[in-house]
DNA sequence: AACTGTCAACGACGGACGTCGTAGATGCCC
DNA sequence: GGGCATCTACGACGTCCGTCGTTGACAGTT
């Protein structure tokens, strides 16, 4: 439990809901998932997932009330960093610039995105010196 | 089989070997994995993986000789793009700039890497206009 | 021809994952 | 208090993944 393992696909989908809505009940997560997701998962499936995630330390559970409330244990940024680091090591030989190169090659790297990226790069450089 | 599924962790490790060495026998892949990897996988494990990957269309097999020769079916860049796209959608809401932001926040984004990234950005912009 | 080594093929197995059904506890309403 | 809804807990199941042992074919050696 010191460092929770990386979330699986289904677990990550749940974490996204928790990051967006904040601490939520199983029901709220389930309904939000139903709205967003194309796939249709049952209530008990979401419950089971959240129980597993509690076990793994991915979420924290408040059981003071009869209806438990779940909250993401790690921030979205932290989780994104961990996941990207993992993929970077496994598929890009640990090269950040290769990752950026691939990100740029995607259609969704729109004009606004490019401007945003350039701003990030400037900030990063300024902070670095 | 038109579009092969995404490689799993173990499969990706094998693909990395094939990209580096070019078309190779099971033995060569196995030995290369033994050198690089900390983990120690058996010969038949690598064989089985490669057989599965042939089934999935991730690699192509030349059986003209008794000792088969395997080759990656998709380029490294293409695979990297698919994998990054998937993670981008699942964890970053499809935002390329978020991915770049996280990539920059990593220790390994060294000075040379930053210069490389800036060059990529310039090229991309020049090509875009 | 017998032995030895290498190779592909196949089957099995344990674990993780996502799925859900069912049971049991708790709360609410008439 | 009886009945209904809601919630958690538990167990099961099918699938995929990575792992490996075993078997049988083939080739080279003596």
From TrEMBL, chains A, B:
Recorded GO MF terms: DNA binding
A GO BP entry: negative regulation of DNA-templated transcription
Keywords: DNA-binding, Transcription, Transcription regulation
Classification via Gene3D superfamilies: Penicillinase repressor domain, Winged helix-like DNA-binding domain superfamily/Winged helix DNA-binding domain
Family recorded in the similarity comment: Belongs to the BlaI transcriptional regulatory family.
Name this polypeptide is given: BlaI/MecI/CopY family transcriptional regulator
Organism: Myxococcus llanfairpwllgwyngyllgogerychwyrndrobwllllantysiliogogogochensis
């Amino acid at each position: 439990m010191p460092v929770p393992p990386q979330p699986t696909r289904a677990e990550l989908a749940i974490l996204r809901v928790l990051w967006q809505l904040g601490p939520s009940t199983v029901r709220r997560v389930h309904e939000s998932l139903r709205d967003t997701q194309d796939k249709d998962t049952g209530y008990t499936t979401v419950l089971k997932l959240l129980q597993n995630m509690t076990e793994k330390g991915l979420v924290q559970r408040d059981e003071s009330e009869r209806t438990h409330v779940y909250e993401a244990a790690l921030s979205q940024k932290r989780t994104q960093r961990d996941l990207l680091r993992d993929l970077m090591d496994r598929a890009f030989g640990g090269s950040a610039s290769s990752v950026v190169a691939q990100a740029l090659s995607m259609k969704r790297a729109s004009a606004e995105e490019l401007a945003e990226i350039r701003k990030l790069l400037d900030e990063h450089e300024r902070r670095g010196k």
